[in-house]
Each structure stands twice: as C-alpha cells, then as structure tokens.
Design brief:
Two copies of one chain form a homodimer.
Chain A (H helix, E strand, L loop, with lengths): L29 E9 L4 E8 L6 E8 L3 E8 L5 E8 L4 E5 L2 E3 L6 H13 L1 E2 L2 E8 L10 E11 L11 E6 L1 H10 L5 H8 L13 E2 L2 E2 L2
C-alpha cells in the first residue's frame, strides 16, 4: 500500500487522443521556504514558487500536517459499522464519522488505526485490510489519510479520550450508512472516501456511464 | 440542496439499540474567539472552547475557508470526464482532478461551478445536476464543497487561468476514472467524493455488506 501523492509521471492515465497522457503539468520550481505559525495539528510554511507558465514568483502557504488514518470497523456479531459522534470545531456542530485521527511520528499507519479505534471507541478487531489512502487536500495539505477495514470488532476496553475529545460511540448498518451519506447526514469527506472503497454510494438516477438508460463502456 | 454541515439533531440516523440515536454529542460552549493569520485562501481563528465532558477550557484553531465547488463534466460526444492536471503546492507534485475552485463571496454554487469549468478548461455545458455537498474537514475547516454533474460539455472558449494556475486539460472515460481512483493515481479526496456520487468505486473483493460471499441486508 502506497497512497502518498505521486510526484512522478502518470504514464498509465488517460485514453484516446485527448487524454493528455503525454503532457504533464510542469513542476513549480521552489526557490525557498520560510516557516509559518505552528498550530499543533499542523504547521504553516510559505514556499517561494515560480509559475512555470509565466515565470512569475509567488509565495504560497502549505500546511505541514501529520498523516491521518480512519477505520471502517465492523462488529463481529452483526457487521454493523462502528461510528463516532462528536462536536467538531470547524463546522461548529455534531458529526457522524468513523474512528480515526493523527498518526504519531514514526508510527505505522495500521498500528495508528488500531490505536485510534481502541482509544476512541473501546473496540478491538482481529482482521485488518488496507483500503488504500487519499490526499485530503493536495492544494495546501502535504499529508495523506490511510483507510482501513477492521472486521470482527468487539467492545473490549474503555474509551481513552484525550482532553480535546468528547466522543459518543454507536453503530450503523451498511444500508443506513449509505443512506446517511446520500442524504448528507454523513458529510465528512474522508469518511466518504473510506466508505466509497467498500460501499456503492451512487445517488439514485445518477450514473455517468449511462445515457438515456443505455449502458456505456 | 443543502449540504452544509448539519448542526441540528440527527433523528433519523442509526438503527437498533446501539445506534446512539437518542444520544447526541454535547456542543462545546464557545467563550470567545480571536483572529489569527490571514492566508488568503483561508483565515485562521482561535476559539476559546469548553469541553462539556470535563469542563476544561482550551483554544482550538478554525480555518475560515470559502466554500468550494467541483464539477464532473461529461463531453457531449463521448461522455468522457473532463479532467485537469496541475502541480499542487501541498503535495508538491502533479495531480489529476476535476475542475473546481473557490466560490466567490455571494456567488451561487452553481454559477461558481459553471465559471470554474469555463475558466479552468474552456468547456461549457448545457445540463447541470447537483450532486450534493460534503464537508472537506469539519475538524478545522468551516466550509463545504458542492459537487455538480455537467453534461453535454463542449470546448467553447479559451482557458482563463489566474496568475497562480498552470492547468492542463484532458479527458478520461468513466472506467479509466474508476481504475485511477482504485489505483491511487487519482487521490484528491474531494474528487473522489464527487465521483462516488456517480460511479461505483468499490475495491475488488471489498464489500462490507458481504460475509464469506453471502449478501447481508
């Protein structure tokens, strides 16, 4: 599993004459960088960059952010999904999410996933599968978020919440999770990217392969 | 369409005795806020919050971020997906994305989507469908990202790139887009959340409804 943003060429992508497979965007030369503020959950940095299209120099902010991890944990007896509910400071309201968090320095993503599941929910699981990873926002975040599937989860321990957490634990069936994503009730992008690797999240009547009911290749 | 993070109760969510549907996380009282640095693409703010579980006060950073929009645009003749390739400052490398960007102050999300498609790619489309929205990261971003489907896209105008952009335009079939997401070549979380509303992105052999090949409800 290697889901880090690929900085090399993408030779396999595209098809047909308009796929752009022979034309990659030029890298932006970086002439320097200066440290910005430290926000604990990320540090800011200002890169001195040159637009290869125009030659113009400009500073752009990058948030140096630890990698993250989240987990679709299925209960052993019912295969329901373990969810966490918490008040989120960005949105200023409650969310429904799957367990997850920051990977500690030097920590293996799988061990971080197992730790976050245990600390946030008290569940432990015996079967773990990588679901790959995504870039939460390559425009200004330098990190990736690893997704895992954990099966046969059982409630084995007490939550270990840190001072900045107040988390309720519940479970959802897969069908209810799909409905909650389609309705917008589950809205966290990184929960949805994890779910998309194991559940069909298509909206009713929206399928870009089809035209007028005909299946396209 | 109202995809903003819901700050109200979630009465419909959950099923069964462990669903937590009667227990919502408590809001965190906010005792104050102070302005932080302005990064142009977002402003930072420090909220003075109280953990309702412990009563402990703590400051937490929120990035006040304009809402975003992105577009799955399908070409009129082949229904291929219009993609943009650019060097991203956060990841420090090239990405494959769908067109999108920031919604201007007071701008309607649909108009922003039409503008971003036109400016970044030169394509215009005549059929627009809302695919809802997601919260890019409710932990520290206060914004939402609106997703749209645009059909019958034709290359009608020249790109209008701003000084901070250098964007290549290409197209991908739906099948190639799914393969690129599953392989990690397309890794931007908000591209994947948009795609998940119109394409089945499940990984081979991963389906959380199934156990040992049997379909679960």
């Amino acid at each position: 599993m290697s889901g880090a943003p690929d900085t090399g060429p993408h030779p396999e992508t595209g098809s047909g004459p308009n796929s752009g497979q022979d034309s990659l965007p030029k890298p932006w030369p970086r002439h320097g960088a200066r440290e910005g503020a430290n926000y604990r959950i990320f540090r800011s940095r200002w890169d001195d960059l040159e637009n290869p299209r125009t030659g113009q120099r400009m500073e752009r902010v990058v948030l140096e952010t630890p990698d993250w991890v989240n987990v679709i944990a299925l209960t052993r007896d019912t295969r329901e999904i373990v969810i966490v509910r918490q008040h989120r400071f960005g949105s200023g309201g409650p969310t429904i999410e799957i367990p997850g968090g920051m990977i500690d320095a030097g920590e293996d993503p799988l061990l971080a996933a197992q730790r976050e599941l245990r600390e946030e929910t008290g569940y432990v699981a015996d079967t773990w599968t990588s679901l790959g990873s995504v870039a939460p926002n390559p425009a200004f975040l330098d990190n990736v978020c690893y997704h895992f599937l954990a099966e046969n989860a059982v409630l084995d321990e007490a939550q270990e919440l840190d001072a900045g957490e107040d988390i309720l634990v519940a479970t959802l069936t897969a069908a209810d999770a799909v409905a909650a994503i389609q309705s917008g009730e589950i809205s966290h992008a990184l929960v949805i990217t994890a779910m998309s690797r194991a559940l069909d999240l298509r909206l009713p009547n929206v399928d870009i392969r089809r035209v007028d009911g005909r299946e396209r290749p």
